[in-house]
Amino acid sequence: MSELLPLLLFAGAIVVLLLGYSVAFSLAGTGLLFAAIGTWTGHFDASFLEAIPNRLFGIMNNEVLIAVPLFVFMGVMLEKSRIAEELLDAMALMFGPMRAGLGISVTLVGMLLAASTGIVGATVVTMGLLSLPTMLRRGYDPKVASGIICASGTLGQIIPPSIVLVLLGDVISSAYQQAQIDQGMFSPETVTVGDLFLGALIPGLILVVAYILYLLFKAVVDPTSVPAIPQAERDAVDDLTARVLKALVPPILLIGLVLGSILGGFATPTEAASVGAVGAILLSMMRGNFSYTVLKQVMKSTTEVSSMVFIILVGASIFSLVFRGYGGDDLVRDFLTDLPGGVFGAMAIVMLVIFLLGFFLDFIEITFVVVPIVAPILLTMGLDPVWLGIMIAINLQTSFLTPPFGFALFYLRGVAPGSVSTMQIYRGVIPFILIQLVILSLLAYWPALATWLPEVVYG
Question: Could you tell me the pTM of the whole model?
Fold first, then answer.
């Protein structure tokens, strides 16, 4: 019976989440309920709960997590400065002469927005409002248009600076230290959010190239689904070069400030996030969009998103504490180490579980609940922490696209015109899910794609 309780705890939390209850309170409530049941039946030591205050204090004291509200602020402020609108218009005209040119411009703008904001919801909604009507008006297949908007919008998951990488970096760092202590290393090495940022750069760019290659393939095999922009529309623009430069330079400067300060060793990710927040304010001022009303809206959105992230982290901490109190981590460790295939088999099962959970759960729940349980075990087996973090990040990226609960699908459905059906959106993302799985397999076969750049920069 005692071995079943951690499994029942995990299953109970998933059932409550699927019933639609608040994530944070579902995790905390399920954990405390099972703790009470276990205490009453003699299967749980209530003294484990005494660690809750220290855990919550540790969350509030975590300097790395300060980057979350700062990056959120930067993303929301950039959304208000209409950078995406100018970028999309300029890039569409630049790639207009070729078939799939508009789709390629959406992909590149999604990449730049990802590197500027790191917020998936804002990118998908913005791109959906701006580009989907344009793509449909110019004859794009609704499935292709929906798929490329959702996929490019989720690039904020993997291309730094990414909130996902900030949260995942904190979890992986703690797991790596725990794994080394379990191995008897009491002066553990550290892995930072900056390491994950560097590790994600090459896989993220490969993903962008793969999306573009798919669109070019569509242009060859099904040219009517991705038509070029009419010549008359392109001729109506006076100075295309100046327009493109005006749209490109500000976000590239901001990206250079944020990532450059991290890669150059001048700032931590948290400090770089503050640079990005100030830079977003300056860009908004340069465009004449900054006002007290805008600042108030941005502050409100930032507070709401940041509060959601931190309260989920609190709930997940309580849940994981109770799970460990039941011996759940030992159960998972025994299961993974006994699998055939050794570390390869364990890694394959973990990736499969995360992929399947992504059909139903958000990346935040998976990051805070699943990763802290499995990561220390996998790292104890000798896996590289940066490689493991990027593998999980790309896997989590698919959770935004996988039906039925992919959040990017919901975001686009909310702003898409009625002529685009939900089934068309679902069918449109399938090729991009397959592309992500191919990139994930490539990274599994060639770990240096994630580990080479951090080793070169940090030695």
Answer: 0.80
